[in-house]
Structures are given as C-alpha cells and as structure tokens.
Amino acid sequence: MFGNVKVNYNPCKSKVAVERTAHYILGKLPQQIKDGVIKTAPNLYWGINCDRDNFPRDVMMTRKLFGKRNSGNANLSYQISISFSPEDRDKLTNEEVFRIAKDFAEKFFQGYEVLFAVHIDKPHPHAHFLVGNCHTVTGKAFRRNERDLYNMCEYLGEQCQKRGLVHSMREEYFNHDLDDSPDKETFAEKQMKAKGKETFKDELREVIRIECADPNNKTLEDVVNALMKHYHVECRVKGNTISYRHPNYTNKNGKLVSVSDSKLGDKYTVKGINYELGKNQRGREADRAEAFTAANTRTADRTQTANGVLHTGTDDKRSGAYPQGVRTLTQSTETGDSSNGISETAQAGNTASGTGRNRNESSGNGGGDRSIIGGRTEGREGSPSGNGNAKNVPTFEELFDCYKRRNTKVSRTSDAEPEPARAVRKKRQDRGR
Exposed, middle or buried, 24 (CB in 10 Å: 0-12/13-18/19+)? Predict the structure, then answer.
C-alpha cells in the first residue's frame, strides 16, 4: 500500500523564491493576511536543523559556509507535500498529521534544513515541506531518485494502514491524479496560440486523446498502432518513455522531427496513457454495470406490475390470491347495503314491475345478477351443511327467473318521452354508480 506524496519539480532558484514559498507555507504572504486566510497554527509548523521562522536566512547562511553559489541556476530548496483523503478526516486530527509529518521529515531529510507545516484551510489534511539543498554537515546537495520517492510513498502508506486511513491509501505506486495535469507549453507555443495558430504539438495531443478514448484501444500497443494506422504518427517506445514523430513537421533541413512525451505533458507519457486507458475501461465497465442494474430493475418492475394485475393479495373476508377479475366480481357483493350479496339494483329489479323494471334490466343490470351468483356461492361456503341460509341463498326459481330476464328480449310498447341531454346524462351517471 502507498500514500500520497507529491513532489514539486520546480525548485526555488533565488532567495526571493525561497522567502515567498516559506511565507506561503506559513500563511504570511501579504495577500493571505489581507484575505484573512489561516493556513496553519503555531503548534502545527516546525523547523528541523533551522529556525522555523527564519528558514530562508538559515538556508542562505549554510550555503555560504560551504561556498555554494547562489546564482540563478542553483537549486536552493525543494517542495514536497503529503496529503490524506477528506473521507479520513474524522480519524485524523491536525496534531496527528503533525506527528506523521515530523516523523516523515526526520526519516527522509536527515541532515538538511526543513520547514514543514500542517495546513488547515482545506477539507483534506495535508502538510508541506520546504527542504534546503545543502547538507548541514557535508554540504552535499539533496538528491532524490525514483527509488527514494517510492520509499516515501510506501512509508506513508504504512502509516496510513496503522491508523486505519483506508481512503488515503492506494494499491499502486504511480499517482493517478492526472486529470488536472496541464499540457506543457513552451513560450513559443503560447505566442503562436495568442496569434490563433495551432502548433504541431497540439495536433499530436489531439490525436493521442482521440485514440486513448477509442474503446477498441485497450493497451499502449493498441494506441501506438492506431496512431500509425489512422494518422501516420510514428511512435517509438523505449522503456518508460515514448516519442512521437509528426508526419508533416520537419526541421530546417527537411527531416521529420520527433518530440518526447515529457514535452507534451504528463497525460501523453507511457504512465499517462496507461492511466487514461484504465480510467476509460473502468468508466465503460461502470456504465455497463449501471445499465445492467437498470435493466434488471425495469424487468422486476414489469414482473411486479404483472403480478399486481393478476394477484391483488388478501382482504378481511378472504384469504389467498385471486385474479383481479374474480376479485371484482366478488367485491360487487360487498358494495351494497344488503349483507346477502344482492345489490340494491338487483333487489329493485326483483320487486319492480312494468316498463320501469324492464327498462332497468335492459340498461345493463347484469351486474346485479352477477352479485346474486356471488352471494349464493359465498352463502354456500359459509353454511356447514352446504346449503347456506335460506335468507342469503336465492332459490332455483329466482335463479331461473334471473336467467330468463337476462336472455329474453324486452320489447317496448311506447317510446319514452324525450328528455334534455343534460338530464339524460345525469341519470345515466346515477345508474352507473
């Protein structure tokens, strides 16, 4: 497991730059004071082998003692920082970050002048280090290589693992924080862009981004082959470096010019391309997983809806699952005021006589007859003898009479008197209730 260690590869090359960087770390820049920005606290910054409030002075004095030049090309100090995830904020206090930073500085910057401070102005806990480039005993310059940075990340990962800071660790040594990495542009490129011209490096960056985003390219080799096939950009990979040759850009002698990956930006290096390919692959997998989950959810909803149409559960009087049509016919026995399952319309049909009764029967009173059937069935089930109560169960004569009325065509002797349309509509609505 590895922690997040960031190195600023732009060292301080003048005393003014050292002073400005030290003041920034301590929150003493005029603009910071004016804006009321509080970067750190008196108990959260410290100096090793130097005065914590006079780091620039001590660095320049040590260099003078060893006869070091302070010209514009000399590296006076370096900047390094360590950071932790905001999600581990509740497990990590500022004092704990200070102890981790102090142990980190004593382990990797022995003999050098170091100023470090824990910043408290951001959601993620982090600490900045400013390391002098002259050993206080030997006068040697501060050297760090890839192995040293690897050891720093590994050590910080161990510290995070001991404290349970699971969100501040990563499984790979390479820092994948390349999304906000800017393109490296020379002063000449910026001038050409200001004039509205596009450089050949911009063209290379564009085609590299296109091929990295292509779902058919899954490895660095796929990207290299695609660049040659689609854009005739020749790539040469050697170890962890890659160079690109634009097919139309030549020097003064007419020879094609190659440009290294580092001159285009971190996103166009071997590590950067592998990172983009991995990120795109993870994004496509996440999209597929989301689409699969959404499809399963829609299928489950459709299945549940279909089951809801066919099975509506139980009620107070019945148990078990019934088809909706059966429930509708059975529930019609419960809507009337009569407890025997016969609706008021059916009762009126059985007691009324003359044209009014015939008109009521011919205008869709079949629901009342079905209610009678439902009431008879329910009454039979409720009787221990199977015949039910005489008051609740209709006789066979009543059943045949209902059957005869339903299947007999009724002829009207005279037409009804015309009524206004609104009144007729109202009566129809009353009959449908």
Answer: middle
pLDDT tens-digit series, residues 49-76: 999 999 999 999 999 999 888 777 888 9
Cβ density class 286-320: b for 16+ within 10 Å, e for less: eeeeeeeeeeeeeeeeeeeeeeeeeebeeeeeeee
With tokens 């206004």, the residue in question is 420
- Counting other chains too, the contacts that 62-68 makes at CB distance below 8 Å and 24 or more residues apart are 62/113, 62/132, 62/134, 62/136, 63/134, 65/139, 66/134, 66/139, 68/134, 68/139
CA–CA gap between residue 245 and residue 208 (Å, rounded): 12
Partners of 234 in beta bridges: 245
d(CA 106, CA 348) in angstroms, rounded, equals 101
3-class DSSP assignment, residue 159: helix
CB 169 within 8 A of CB 161: yes
Identify how many contiguous H helices and E strands the chain contains and give both numbers.
15, 8
Higher pLDDT among residues 135 and 180, named by residue: 135
This prediction has a pTM of: 0.47
Q: Are 29 and 20 in contact, with CB atoms under 8 Å apart?
A: yes
Largest CA distance in the chain: 131
pLDDT band (50, 70, 90) for residue 359: very low
Task: Using the predicted structure, report yes or no on whether residue 371 has a pLDDT greater than 60.
Answer: no
Q: Which of 69, 70, 98 is nearest to 84 (CA)?
A: 98
